[in-house]
Amino acid sequence: MDFWAYTASGFAVGAIVGVTGVGGGSLMTPLLVLVFGVSPTTAVGTDLLYAALTKSGGAWVHAARGGVDWNLVRLLASGSIPASILTIAAIHYLAVDTEALGYVITHSLGAALILTALSIIFRDKIRVWADKRLGFGSSGAPAYWVVITGATLGLLVTVSSVGAGAVGVTALMLLAPALPTSRIVGSDIAHAVPLTLVAGLGHASTGSVDWLLLASLLVGSLPGIWVGSHISHRLPERALRGLLATLLVLVGGRLAL
What we know:
This protein is mainly α and 257 residues long. It has one domain (2-256). The protein contains eleven helices and no strands. The two termini are 31 Å apart. The mean pLDDT is 81.
């Protein structure tokens, strides 16, 4: 019974990701915690590997079409991968209390969801503000800004499994304003694959991955993403993103409080 419930959830979240481009970690992790009662640590670890496997196909498609800025991905990863490894090492070697860690993850997840929602709602306004205030221009941000952003995403994603999608895309729009949106999305997805894989394997090394749960989610999510991708052009994306942002605020507030 649980297998099919997880599979149906995987399909639903996969379809939303296929339509909107965001919502994987930000929907799946709270769904596992709030609806299915999965512990926060296991939900995060399982969702990270789920994200790595589901996004690898999207990254391959974008790369095949030339839609990935590999230099940008390299700079982001040079910050995010070490940050993820250090975060996992701190959790593991400092012998953090499981109950305390669950508390931290739950509240971090709530904050990350609200941040993601704000990124979705105010993406255009943030971009305009950044153009005026930061003035990176056509050359984009200095390399160290990209590395620092990657490190921030690495910490956020490793602790909460949220942030690699909408937050990552919004950050790239600020850092590389001259880059076409399609390449920003492709670069964000390509960067999310190694980040979530490293973070997920790190959680797996501490026993925080439910492999049967992971398989159940993938059975549903892979066809869900395929369906969502094919119907995305028929649906009003702006309305869907608004609905998704509202949902994230409600769920994030529930977890944070």
